[in-house]
Amino acid sequence: MYGVSSIIGAGIFALTGIAVQYTGPSLFISFIIAGFTSVCSAYMYAEFSSRFETNGSAFIYVYTTFGELPAWIVGWWLVNSYCLMAIAKTRALSYYLVGLLENLGIIIP
Predict the structure, then answer these.
(1) How many domains are there within the chain?
(2) Is 109 among the domain residues?
(3) Tens-digit pLDDT string for the chain (109 aa)
(4) Residue 99 resides in a domain
(5) Which end of the chain, C or N, has fewer beta carbons within 10 A?
(6) What is the pTM of this model?
(7) Burial (CB count within 10 angstroms: exposed 0-12, middle 13-18, buried 19+), residue 62
């Protein structure tokens, strides 16, 4: 599930209302393009995982192909991006929670 949420991202849940205000009905086209890109990314990882015998992520693919230093860079980049994704998803969740509580009459500054 973490891989799926990493591919899709939190923006589809947190920014849809704001995006509709600016784009209107053409937002649907953006979702189609983003969905196609996500499917291509998932297909790429599926192909990579079927070609390598070890389990792993982009680190293993880069390590097998290019060596240790590029794999180390990619590994740390993945750690940083996962941390930033967790931060973005937590911010979106807290935004929705504050909105829900405001609808219930509980105001949180």
Answers:
(1) 1
(2) no
(3) 556 666 666 666 667 777 888 888 888 898 899 889 888 988 888 887 888 777 777 888 889 889 999 999 999 998 898 888 888 778 878 888 898 999 999 988 7
(4) yes
(5) C
(6) 0.62
(7) buried
